[in-house]
Known about the structure:
Blueprint: H1 2-13, H2 16-31, H3 35-44, E1 48-51, H4 58-65, E2 71-75, H5 81-90, H6 92-111, E3 118-122, H7 130-136, E4 141-146, H8 149-157, H9 180-185, H10 188-206, E5 209-212, H11 213-216, H12 220-231, H13 237-244, H14 265-281
Parallel strand pairs: 1-3, 1-4, 2-3, 4-5
Helix pairs in contact: 2-6, 3-6, 4-13, 5-6, 8-10, 10-14
Amino acid sequence: MLVSRFINKILYDLRLIHLYYFFHYKYIKYKYKDLEYVKQVLVDKKFFLITSTGRTGTVLLSQMLNRIDGAYIVHEPLFQETTYHRLSMEDPEFSYTFLKNFRLKEMVHRIEKNNCIQYGEVNGGLRRNIKELKELFPEMKIIHIVRDGRKIISSMLNRNTFLKGDTYYNLKPSSSIVDAKTWSNFNRFERITYLWAAENKHMREHSDLTIRFEDMVSDYTYFKTNILDVLGLDLDYQTWVESTQKKINKTKQVKSDTEYTGWSDTQKEFFRLHCSDEMIRNGYTM
């Protein structure tokens, strides 16, 4: 694993990894001609998706579920995963073509190398593809994880979200999300905040159920009822305790304090205006 990461870092630094994945993905795209075969493999493996905006314990969750015998759970497995999410946000028609012509084939290609009983993804990168996934797989389970918007926005403000060098720099969401003029007038804080509400609304409306991050990591019964039982998986209490006590993918303090208490009155009012509905629907106090 360490050797693989070292080689990938060298390839990335040399920009060769971009070429590698370009040809690898081209190979996968044309390897599988029969979409019905691809769909049947995923149905047979009881394909499921757990998705979110990110910063919701998804790395921890994928690692935890992978400890279950027979389960093959991946976390954002694609090279440049966020690029595909951005394309789906900017062009809704991209989503179905992306799934049918490549993404589902890529899943099957990986499954064929793993003798698993059940395949799932814990993947925020697919959150704009869930409506189309449900059309292709009506019986599949899709779980949406939500977390207090104030925590998520604070974390994103403390990262490079929408800054130069970020995948989402100069993002232009489709008109189905927000009209171009309104978006162009938003500052960075407002864009992050507006999309927190829009993305969670989309996931809530097209998933089988919405669960709260805070309850998932603090209440085993809640975790078992809303994830394990829904997906037909089994994970013991002690493993859940050990996993939830770990700190994974923790936000580093790279910018100034971004906590809600430090927001301006204007920022708090913008949050209240655009996020209160999703916050209240999911049981958070304002």
